Amino acid sequence: MIEKKRRQIELLQEKRSALISHAVTKGLDPNAPMKDSGIEWLGEIPRHWQAKRLRFLVSEPLKYGANESAELDDPDLPRYIRITDVDENGRLRGDTFKSLPEDVARPYLLKEGDLLLARSGATVGKSFYYEPSWGRAAYAGYLIRARFNPARMMPRFVNYFTNSQQYWQWLGSSFIQATIQNVSAEKYANLIVPVPPVDEQAEIVAYLDGMWKRLNDLTRKVGGSIEQLMDYRSALISAAVTGKIDVRKETQNE
Asked: Whole-model pTM?
């Protein structure tokens, strides 16, 4: 039963990935005429879309974070975000809080809509979308900040694109010649991003926001039932080991 529910979570995650990948590369209109993007890993995109390098979509050059050790945990100071602080749903974990002194954090303080991209190690390619509700925050050196003008390119759309199968295919192809998994700011700047008109970006983001919430709610529900089953199994094992349940009698009754 537990394995079956774990498989349900895997299927929900696969569905989420497929829906995101289709929406950010094909759009929501199933009848939209298509064209070849000219990029093998991207494939066809709607005819009225463009495909542009990330360097032409950001409002200022991509920027590396602070090379500081994470020693403070003062909640009155700006939070120091490292990619290990971000969970699988793109949210900040509550158990890994670290902070930076005001003067050190100042050049790296995040603004609403900033997108952080991991550049090295096991988490390379992972992204985080910053919102003011997280509180004041700066970011670490193994992260790269992308800042956008939302009137031209919605950062949330780019964030969803970094969760697409096509993005991860591009990332994988970048490592073929490399012994260490690393994506520099220069390499990220050359990432090709599908670009719909801004009003269509907003429609796609709204659709994916709703889908993400529904599937996450289902995932949490299934995850909760797994925890209950595991607790029940542990209780049965404990009862059997301590003699609270006569296993021999239960076997005879069967």
From this structure: 0.85
Q: Are 171 and 165 in contact (CB under 8 A)?
A: no
> Is 164 found in the same domain as 41?
yes
Do residues 14 and 42 share a domain? yes
C-alpha to C-alpha distance for 172 and 166, rounded to whole angstroms: 10
| Structural domain boundaries enclosing 95 | 60-147
pLDDT in single tens digits along all 254 residues of the chain: 777 777 777 888 889 999 999 999 999 999 999 999 999 999 999 999 999 999 999 999 999 999 999 899 999 999 999 988 988 878 899 899 999 999 999 999 999 999 999 998 788 999 999 999 999 999 999 999 999 999 999 999 999 999 999 999 999 887 655 556 789 999 999 999 999 999 999 999 999 999 989 988 887 777 777 777 776 667 777 767 776 666 555 455 54
DSSP secondary structure string, 142-168?
Answer: TEEEE-B-TTTS-HHHHHHHTTSHHHH
